[in-house]
Amino acid sequence: MDGKFVGLQENGVPLDRVETCMLTQIRKLITSRESPEPRSNTGGAPLVSFVVIVYDMPQQAENTLHSLSAKFQRGASEADYEVIVVENESANNLSPAFIAGLPKNFSYHLRAEREPTPVHAINHGVGISLGQYVCVMIDGARMVTPGLVKNILRGHRIDDRAVVTVPGYHIGEQVQQEAVEDGYGKEQDQALIASIDWRNNGYELFDIACFSGSCDDGFFRPCSESNCISVPRAIWASLGGLDTRFNLRGGGLVNLDLYRRVLEYPRVVHVSLLGEGTFHQFHDGVTTGGEEREVRDALIGEMNLQYEAIRGQDYQRPQTTPVFLGEIPLQVLTFVHASAEPLLGSKRPVTYPPPISILSAKSAKS
């Protein structure tokens, strides 16, 4: 088989400023004319390691992993990156047949986890990875767009302390926490995905999606997290990986904690991939699944209390001035408009220095 299989293992190792900067944030929209495609890595080790966590979501994870494959990604080769799939054992694991067909740059690791958190799985996956950069995807149910790998590599070339993040979306017309109240579930979710030709044009995912709650203020105001965060390995090591005290179901606010810690790391350059995205498929997730609202609200309250106990304060979105990078598919322009309109309509005076580069739409179908 192409994908490597590793058997069961125990626990692993452990609107002020932004409003005045909206257009100048778009400082470096890379086009093929301005910058060559990332060169293939010929040195043996991959440039970036994706660590993807899976638990009780085989159908959704299969879609996600296909979207990370080199045959789906544009402008990147298998030699450029590796995908480490870490699955915490459940009664509904990925099938052996699917695992056997994983691409050569994928490896699969099944673990017996004693705590209801993905923290140990992520730290383990990073610990066995080889890339110069580490890209954490805490939720294996998030499909990605075809330029993601290429543009993560571009982003890291901007600065040796670049942290690259990707905006988040939910499949459906409204965030799944709300949609589930109206009967939305796996069947409707997968039917929406099947209604588009995403395998041939992954940017069509934007046509059936909305901003996730973490990005509900749009591109030009701070987000609370990213479900695809790529970090230089040295910064990851300096932070000590994920904090294992986040031991609540789903990891509590550990992904938000990672997002804030890496973006507030000294002299970090925040690169956001405006034209790419991660798309959450419904899978009975901790905060987006089919449990009663009261149960979910109680768990979220517990998560907030745990964060305050660990960090000594409530969670606050990190204030950054990101460099927006990448091609802009036509499908994304709706989200650009929705992000800009509240700021452009503000009664407060907003002045912008001349933009360094010009925002231009490029069809993802070309």
Automatic annotation (TrEMBL):
Membrane spanning residue stretches: none
Residue ranges the record marks as coiled coil: none
SUPFAM superfamilies associated with the record: Nucleotide-diphospho-sugar transferases (SSF53448)
Residue span, Glycosyltransferase 2-like domain: 49-174
Protein name as annotated: Glycosyltransferase
CDD domains (alphabetical): Glyco_tranf_GTA_type
Pfam families with a match to the protein in the record: Glycos_transf_2
InterPro entries: Glyco_trans_2-like (IPR001173), Nucleotide-diphossugar_trans (IPR029044)
Protein origin, superkingdom: Bacteria
